[in-house]
Design brief:
144 residues; mainly beta; 5-stranded antiparallel beta sheet; 3-stranded mixed beta sheet; 3 helices; 12% helix
């Protein structure tokens, strides 16, 4: 109700919490990007130098600024339109609205999954998913 009133819209009643021990707050339930028309192989072939983040898990985001960072558990370099060597210790860093504006291609191959979202109101089950997407200009951090 608080966020709805801040934005000048009625409450949706979608506050969530892990249990009675936590105060409810606005939380995600289902987040996904719909399928597009692009083939994964065409997406890779269009990249001269980049990163294929195959598996992303864990991270954090700020609802106030839209900034996020996510750990990449499985990643590969892309060189001259081909998937090359695996790399370790990478992190995706950015702002949600900027990433959405940087999407250049959206694959046909949507996959949905379940997980947990942890925040001040505890850990709650969520579902999320997307097809492969090609994003231009996303910052990639790497530990050595």
């Amino acid at each position: 109700m608080l966020n709805g009133s801040r934005m000048g819209i009625p409450s949706t009643g979608s506050g969530r919490r892990e249990s009675y021990r936590f105060a409810p707050t606005s939380r995600m339930t289902n987040t996904y990007i719909a399928s597009g028309n692009d083939e994964f192989n065409d997406m890779v072939a269009s990249i001269d130098y980049g990163l294929y983040a195959k598996k992303v898990e864990g991270g954090s985001e700020s609802v106030k600024t839209g900034e996020f960072n996510f750990a990449v558990n499985e990643a590969y370099m892309i060189r001259n339109g081909k998937i090359a060597e695996p790399i370790r210790g990478t992190t995706l860093i950015g702002k949600g609205h900027e990433v959405l504006m940087g999407i250049e291609m959206v694959g046909k191959d949507i996959a949905l999954d379940s997980g947990l979202c942890a925040a001040s109101s505890g850990q709650i089950p969520t579902s999320c998913g997307q097809p492969h997407i090609l994003v231009n200009g996303l910052l990639v951090g790497r530990r050595k």
